[in-house]
Specification:
The chain is mainly beta and about 850 residues long. The protein is built from 6 helices and 54 strands. The strands form 13 sheets. Strands 3, 5, 6, 8, 11 and 12 form a 6-stranded mixed sheet that branches. The chain is globular, with a radius of gyration of 41 Å.
């Protein structure tokens, strides 16, 4: 009997346990009421301003169900019209967002509509299979006013010397804070307050440079032209400059047979240690110097923005490229420390009929490559960031262990893939079919817009056949991605012209083709391939000698195509008409170049902030180098000279391109093989006044200095020559003054200083300007002024800044004693003079006697 009871009890227990396991299946048939919501920010809002809507359901989902589907929002406008937004898919939190712009004043009513659907994955205790019923949120009243809503004020652009890091709240500073990841084809550098004067911030040696001297006479040290550029692969990220520097380790040994030279050449037992150097962009101070990996060189940089549900932020890398057999690997390093982060193995490269194209940057800083096979008819987009994401997602999908799936999912939603090597094959976003037989090769890639390509026969000089132009669509709003927009031909003028594709601009929708023999360009519509204009006006015959990275393809910015190379005359061509807007002659008055005629050959440095910058370069300069090479800044619209200085810098075709980031230009100077930084630097103003009180009515001498305190002025070579500091001079004097300070030319005799405004706060608490003066070539200024009231004066000296310097000011004080009253002689009582009174009395007595005597005389008998 006891056994029966035990068995029954066990059966009941098992039944209960089985019912627990069966519980989710039973609950899966349940229906659940949803809790839709909606919010709006800001509320109230001004008409025509953006409103961010937040809507969805308070119930969450779980991966792989991405969220709730087919959510809509009903919008009832003040005029009674109804609009439906959506459908939307929420994220796994149950919510999502949208932006609307109300165009009516009054009250809008907003409602979230949640349709019936099934929860496919158990989430927050709600089992999979639960039917979520349809529902609506409460109506939200959105009040729209005629007056605009005020928002958090943005920080104004910097008005004083600034450095990195920039506070994330200063969003407007994006206009002047920038990076330089690789030399752009067009050399256009937005997001800069580009230098308006040739003021040097610092200079640092890259290699032995300048005059060799002694028994070698006037010869100079070699500077890397041609083909052995010293300053290559340079990158600017987050206020730091990165460049490559080779250091020989031991003397070369004799070798036999042919020697193959390369970037990391070896001569017998001799090796070169390849260092990467990181400098502070504003000061030139070394941050770190390291050997990256196996003697690797920086190739390019990147700052990418990564956003997931749980992570938002930017990440920066400096990249090296390493050849391993037949493959190319990319290695990412941390810019702040030089630490290796991760490797992408076997990055797509051109092979056979496959063209992998160059690196282009996507909207979030991702590095993209377009792999195209026009023979077999396919195209793929490769994305550097997707390599990491898709690798972890693949691990997640293939993993059977929960812990592995959690780890893979964690990394797919986050970033920082430190210490891993990834296969580049995981980086493909998509692979699509394109028409076969497109002639030639792609030649320009514009993510989210267009790929242009074509064929020009540049080898058969007497060939007068057509050129081919085509384009592939990358913009989904303009048609199917991969669709050929056009495939057309154009027949150039006869005469066996040597043609090549030139500069392109998506802003101006322009493709250019250059013709060597006539030194002219033709313009084509990027969207149709149709010829727009050309040829442009023929330039000097020396421009036919185009070759190497010297700007022969032209530069497009501000609605102008800038042309001009060896002949030394710059043309600014209107991109709409092909007509010359203005020209600039880069004259050389002393005929330093025997082959260059009357003009210095032009090298485009960059364009930015409405300015175009020119340098001089040669394919391979003779020794001694030609003197007086110009550095020129022109107004991009008018051609007006903003500044020009001869002999400050001489550039090099092969030694590395000029750069511009954080409003600071970086230039390698072959006259001394130093790297220079050009930009607006800090200044220092001092002021003094009498230390003792002065009597009222006396004049006061106020004096002080204005000096340049940029980092370069603190270096021993400069500080030794200027023990009292480097004087600040006018923008007009800057070019010759910088040569004097940093390159030891003779001191300019006509250098002028800067204006100083002097003001006082007097004893009546009135602030007023008392005068203006200009400092001299020693940085000294003075002003003689007579105070008009007594008491304490605070004196303020202010230098307002210039294109060369940020402003500075100083303060001092002096006192004026009260005016003294004039000395008054005391007034004492004057003694009485009785002289006349006595005389008068005496006369009166005599008169009386006379009268009495007369009377008595008359009375005698």
């Amino acid at each position: 009997m006891t056994r029966i009871k035990t068995a029954i009890a066990t059966l009941l227990i098992l039944t209960f346990v089985f019912s627990l396991f069966a519980l989710p299946a039973a609950l899966a048939q349940y229906r659940k009421k949803p809790y839709p919501f909606i919010g709006a920010m800001p509320n109230p809002v001004g008409r025509g301003q953006e409103v961010l809507l937040h809507f969805g359901s308070l119930d969450q989902t779980a991966w792989p169900q991405p969220g709730w589907f087919n959510i809509t929002v009903t919008v009832e406008k003040p005029d009674g019209k109804i609009e439906t937004l959506g459908p939307f898919t929420t994220d796994t939190t149950g919510g999502t967002g949208a932006v609307i712009v109300p165009d009516q004043v009054g009250t809008y009513y907003l409602t979230t509509n949640f349709p019936e659907q099934v929860l496919t994955t158990t989430s927050a205790g709600i089992p999979a299979g639960t039917i979520m019923e349809a529902g609506k949120s409460e109506k939200l009243a959105l009040n729209v006013t005629q007056e605009p809503r005020t928002f958090y004020p943005d920080a104004p652009l910097p008005t004083e010397y600034w450095t990195r890091p920039v506070n994330a709240q200063f969003r407007g500073w994006n206009a002047v804070a920038s990076n330089w990841y690789t030399t752009p084809n067009n050399r256009y550098a937005p997001y800069n307050d580009a230098p308006g004067a040739p003021h040097i911030l610092w200079a640092t040696p890259l290699a032995e440079g300048g005059l060799a001297g002694g028994e070698l006479g006037v010869n100079n040290y070699e500077m890397g032209d041609a083909y052995e550029g010293k300053f290559v692969g340079q990158v600017i990220i987050d206020g730091m400059l990165f460049f490559n520097r080779q250091i020989p380790q031991n003397a070369p040994q004799a070798t036999t047979g042919a020697v193959s030279l390369g970037i990391n050449a070896t001569f017998g037992n001799a090796t070169a240690e390849q260092q990467v150097v990181a400098l502070d962009l504003k000061t030139g101070k070394e941050v770190w110097t390291r050997v990256l990996g196996n003697n690797e060189r920086v190739s390019f940089g990147q700052t990418m923005y990564w956003q997931t549900m749980n992570l938002y932020g930017a990440y920066s890398y400096i990249w090296t490229t390493v050849t391993v057999g037949t493959r190319t690997d990319w290695k990412a390093y941390d810019p702040l420390t030089g630490r290796w982060e991760f490797t992408i193995m076997d990055v797509p490269a051109s092979s056979g009929t496959v063209n992998a194209g160059g690196n282009v940057y996507g909207p979030n800083g991702e590095i993209l490559k377009y792999v195209i096979d026009t023979t077999k008819g396919w195209m793929a987009q490769w994305n550097s960031t997707q390599v990491v994401f898709n690798t972890y997602m693949q691990l997640y999908l293939n993993s059977t262990r929960l812990s592995d799936r959690d780890t893979a999912k964690y990394w797919s939603e986050r970033w920082r893939p430190m210490g891993y090597t990834f296969n580049a094959s995981f980086g493909y976003n998509w692979n699509i079919t394109i028409p076969t037989g497109l002639p030639g090769n792609p030649n320009a890639y514009f993510p989210g817009d267009i790929i242009t390509g074509g064929f020009i026969n540049t080898t058969a000089r007497l060939w007068d056949g057509p050129i081919y132009l085509w384009a592939i669509n990358l913009n989904a709003s303009r048609g199917t991605v991969g669709q050929v927009r056009y495939n057309t031909t154009w027949t150039p003028p006869s005469g066996g012209l040597t043609l090549a594709f030139g500069a392109r601009s998506t802003d101006d929708r322009l493709i250019t083709v250059r013709a060597k023999e006539i030194r002219a360009f033709f313009g084509f519509n990027m969207d149709t391939g149709q010829n727009l204009w050309g040829p442009t006006e023929t330039r000097g015959y020396m421009d036919a000698f185009m070759g190497g990275p010297s700007g022969e393809n032209g530069m497009i910015a501000y609605g102008k195509l800038y042309l001009g190379t060896v002949a030394g005359v710059l043309q600014a061509i209107d991109v709409k008409t092909g007509e010359v807007s203005w020209t600039y002659e880069n004259k050389q008055p002393y005929t330093e170049l025997m082959w260059g005629g009357s003009y210095w050959p032009i090298e485009f440095a960059f364009s930015s902030d409405g300015k175009v910058y020119l340098l001089h370069t040669e394919h391979s300069g003779n020794s001694p180098l030609p003197r007086g090479a110009p550095f020129v800044c022109l107004n991009a619209t008018t051609g007006e000279i903003i500044f020009k200085v001869d002999g400050l810098f001489r550039f090099t075709v092969w030694g590395g391109d000029p750069m511009l980031a954080d409003s600071t230009a970086i230039i390698f100077n072959t006259y001394d093989n130093r790297i220079y930084a050009v930009g607006r630097g800090p200044s220092q103003t001092t002021v003094t006044a009498p230390d003792t009180s002065v009597p009222f009515g006396s004049s006061v001498m106020i004096r002080g200095t204005v000096t340049d305190i940029s980092a370069g002025t603190q270096e021993s070579a400069v500080a030794s020559r200027f023990p009292n500091g480097v004087p600040a001079v006018s923008d007009e004097s800057m070019g010759e003054w910088m040569k004097y300070v940093y390159q030891q030319t003779q001191k300019p005799t006509n250098a002028s200083g800067v204006e100083v405004v002097l003001s006082v706060l007097d004893s009546n608490n009135n602030i007023r300007e008392i005068g203006r003066t200009t400092s001299d070539a020693n940085g000294f200024y003075s002003l003689n002024w007579t105070p008009d009231i007594s008491g304490k004066y605070n004196v303020f000296a202010a230098f307002a800044g210039s294109e060369s310097y940020w402003p500075s000011h100083a303060e001092t004080a002096f006192v004026v004693d009260p005016a003294t009253e004039p000395v008054q002689t005391p007034e004492y009582p004057q003694p009485i003079d009785y002289t006349m009174s006595i005389v008068g009395v005496g006369i009166a007595i005599l008169a009386a006697i006379a009268v009495v005597g007369l009377v008595l005389f008359r009375k005698k008998p």
